Amino acid sequence: MNFNQAEFLTSYGLSSQLPKSDELEFAFAGRSNVGKSSLINKLFNRKALAKVSAVPGKTATINFYRVENVHFVDLPGYGYAKVAKSEKERWAALIEKYFGDDRNLGLVFQLVDMRHPPTKLDIDMTNYLIECELPFAVVLTKADKLNKTQTKERLAAIRKELPYGEQLTILPCSSQTGAGIEEMRELIEEIVSQ
Ligand code: GDP
């Protein structure tokens, strides 16, 4: 797969707009400001495919990208405290419609900030993915911000903090240094070729 050939397909802001699809999809989920846009841009070698926002909580749409016939789905970030209740409900409706649509999901990448223990919403999301029996891997973002000792500590801790942590695929990544990005691509390629 040529990761340099990604193109933007479309955005949806309302669950009622979301069409069903049989295409193989890889989705990205995580709280606002976790580094999701930066990671998507790094994965596809692009500067602004996913808009990196300095204002958290701005990306309240589901955005679809495509490489050949594989779809990549940028889910709206969760957990931004300052948004209104109606906005949170719209977010929940979008996510539930998306995951409830019986899609052809190759893998969901759940992004968690590597510097901190997962938030309650991160843990809720992991539990949700497990309950829905969706295939997922945890990407620990901003790995460049930790030194060797801290990296080791967080990697051990996260396996205890996340539900079924010992059994999860956990990948430390950095959009700044590119660490972990090739491993992410390999994971995707492996699933695409199955
Ligand atoms: P999103 O809200 O999840 O899409 O997060 P963004 O990609 O917009 O990133 C949020 C902030 O974190 C921005 O200031 C980014 O520059 C920063 N950031 C994102 N990824 C990394 C990373 O891997 N390393 C470092 N040091 N900062 C990052």
From TrEMBL:
One of its GO terms (cellular component) is cytosol. Keywords: Cell cycle, Cell division, GTP-binding, Magnesium, Metal-binding, Nucleotide-binding, Septation. Gene3D superfamilies: P-loop containing nucleotide triphosphate hydrolases. One of its GO terms (biological process) is division septum assembly. Residues 22-194 form the EngB-type G domain. Its cofactor is Mg(2+). InterPro entries: G_ENGB_dom, GTP-bd, GTP-bd_ribosome_bio_YsxC, P-loop_NTPase. SUPFAM superfamilies: P-loop containing nucleoside triphosphate hydrolases. Necessary for normal cell division and for the maintenance of normal septation. PANTHER family: ENGB-TYPE G DOMAIN-CONTAINING PROTEIN, MSS1/TRME-RELATED GTP-BINDING PROTEIN. Belongs to the TRAFAC class TrmE-Era-EngA-EngB-Septin-like GTPase superfamily. EngB GTPase family. NCBIfam families: GTPase_YsxC. This is Probable GTP-binding protein EngB. It comes from Massiliimalia timonensis. The gene is engB.
